[in-house]
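The data layer described in this paper is built around a simple, fixed record for each protein. Such a record has a labelled line for the sequence and another for the backbone structure tokens. For reference, a complete record is included directly beneath this paragraph.
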Amino acid sequence: MVSQDLVTSAFNGLASHIAVLDAAGFIVYVNASWRRFAVQNGSCDPGAYVGANYIDLCRRSAEAGDKLAIEAIEGISAVVSGAAPRFSQRYPCNGPGVDRWFLMTVTPVHAGSGAVIAHDDVTPLVRAEIASAASERRLRLCLEAGQMGTFEIDLEKEEIALGPQQAKLLKLPAGTNRLRLGDLDSMLLDSDPRSLKERIINAGSRYSEELRLRMPDSSERWLSFAAAPQPHAGQNLGHYFGISLDVTERKFEERNRVLAQEVQHRVKNMLTVVLAIARQTVFHSTPSSSAEKFAQRVAGLGASFALLTKAGWKGVSLSELIETQLAAFTDSFRDQVSIEGPAFTIQPPAAQVLGMAFHELATNSIKYGALSKSGGRISIQWNIRDGGQDKQFHVSWSELGGPECKAPASRGFGYTVIVSAVESSLDGKVQLLYPSSGLVWEVTAPLEEIIAPPC
């Protein structure tokens, strides 16, 4: 049988502050640690509260407004009465110039015959928790300020765990903390057919990529993702930790800067062409007619420019380009003009020079050719021909039913546009024929100089 002295020695050897209560809640025993703590905190009770009712002491604190004391009364009473097997509570116990926290644990001696209350100083643990919470709060604020998010990827489970800020960046519903990788794949807007899992595996030791995503609200955002694997015993088991950054504004700035440079380049080129038109028009025309001719030619150039701008300078339909240029001269050109050829998009440089050529051809036809008579007709045809190693683009303008056609006595600016400019700009060959039935203009050029590459 264990002696009373041995039990007392065991209790006194504990660092925990121990008090033993009877069935009514009175303190019947305290250990040495309890007594030392009572003295350190200025207690004048020589018995260190032995004989006092612990529950009554808690009740006084509760009456003074301590909500934790109310919780302690209920918990201790439940253990003492045998209604609960255990009760624990963390509480602050601040002394002069120091903040401390203790953990009270209440366990029964025997059901309904009392309880043992142990108080342990958990100040280092609480301070560490407070510091960790503060660090997490600072990290969260930094991530929010930098529009950054954190995530974990499990390749085996094919899912991604999201930090709160990462869920915000992806514009997911509040509380979303996990996503299937396939769901993220469905948001991708780039042309790479690989899944996110494949990209991460192929990246090796570090994955880094800027992704354009369509968010659940249908908006488009750019996020820069970077992730590294968590090694385990020298092996990568497919668990990655990562961070992402919203780079949408930078992408927009880059795109706007590129667009500004392109616009500047195109405007500069257009002004150069306009200046050349002005010089040639004045040189080849009388003062009375030069202003009108200049205005018409600039209007034709502007029509091509407007079409290209509308298409984002990715190219325009050849048939639309021809119709736009002819519409500037007559609303009824469809009754006199047939347009036939395969549908394809021509690139901007070809559209500009061909647009000017069609404008000059139409100008000439209105004054001297088929469009000057109601019965006149124009046939415009184009196709792609096999030119040996490379495919060739061929387009023709043929007039019929107009006045008798004769070769001009001299070459003016119109000839420069429809022959010289076309040949030099398209690296092609132009044939300009003047049979009596009507003017014939034919162009042959390498297909790569004409057709716009696929987007």
The CA atoms of residues 104 and 119 lie 5 Å apart.
